Amino acid sequence: MLNKDAGLVDDVTGRSRALRDDVPGVFHFDLQAILPPASSLYGNAERLRIICEGCVKPVLGAGRLHFSGAGFHLVSASDVAAEDHAQIVNTALLELFFGTEILNGNRQLFRKLDAEEAAHVLAELGEPDRRDTADEEAPEVPRAFSRPVAFEFAPIEDMQSRRAVAFVCKPYLPADNVRVHGYPAVARALGETLSLDLVLLEESLAFARERAASGLPGAVVATVGYETLARSRSREPYRAALRSACAAQNSLLVLKIADLPKGLPSWRLADVVQCVKPFIGRIFVRLSHTDVLFAHQGFLGAGGFVLEMPQMPTPEKCREEIERVMRACADQRARLCIDNISTIAEWEVARAGGASLGMWARGADVPSPPI
């Protein structure tokens, strides 16, 4: 039972819970109703899926599609605006298959699943059912670092001209003998991601302001951990920081999502990108593996991807791997940056493979760029 003033009353437990924007609404779209008129698609579920994805993805926002037979489930990111979200998807499908004439008929291809059905579907899809725990999650409070953290800015170069076109903020832990370098290693050493991500954002914004004041070109890249954006407790403070910094209007700032877990499905990465996209103009994703690019789950929404220099038996195999990833990036309308390049020979291989940006490995004997 829905009461806009009182919130939502759970039919099973009878306890009241407020509507929240991080609780999903689940709908089933039955495409059997449109398959007979579109007879060329009948029995070709894969083609139907691709056509529907191409139509729905632009209006999907942070929602998710899960295809099954001649239909799909839409998991809306918000239970508050779920009906409106489903109606937008419904309209897009009707316009695709029947044109604008049918829109006045208000034909509905979907139904909303009740609480029991939704929980069953979410469990089958491997998605968390957050309805019982949503109210228990308070925003995470950033903590002070347990160890001193320092920062440096490393250049990102254009593959062709070797000019620095951007600078990425990299954390490290200073020590007497050995320094801990790089985002994953520092985050693990601190046991803290949100605080690190917020400080990286502050350092990047300050560096961008300095360069802008001096009239120097080049973007500035701030790294954020995947887990920070994937968890609502840490996502909201980070988005609030982006909002207060007016990051969406800052043409120099780029966000790089890093430390992706192994086995991450592409639809989940797309969700995380979409949840932060309104707050930042440009987003890159650092790939810990390439599976997420080849899962054929539609448009991921990132403007670029960062890949560590492949370690292959021969330069030819390495170039072929970069070309393979580059084709997937082209399908995503995204750029490719190769990280951790050690030699000029590796640089030439990456350039031949089609990458447009490159970063040198720490300690590499970097040759001077051409004049």
Structure description:
The chain has ten helices and 16 strands. By secondary structure, it is α/β, with parallel strands linked by helices. The strands form three sheets. The chain has an eight-stranded mixed beta barrel with strand order 8-9-11-12-13-14-15-16, surrounded by four helices. A four-stranded antiparallel β-sheet has the order 5-6-4-7, with helices on both faces. Strands 1-2-3 form a three-stranded antiparallel β-sheet, with no helix packed on it. Strand 2 (7-9) and strand 3 form a beta hairpin. Helix 1 (45-60) crosses helix 2 (82-98), helix 5 (194-214) packs parallel to helix 7 and helix 9 (315-331) packs across helix 10.
Q: Care to count the β-strands?
A: 16
| Cα-based radius of gyration, to the nearest Å | 23 Å
The named CATH superfamily of the largest domain: EAL domain
Estimate percent helicity. 25-40%
Structural class: alpha/beta
SS field, number of helical segments: 10
What's this model, at a glance?
This protein is an alpha/beta fold and 371 residues long. The chain is 35% helix and 22% strand.
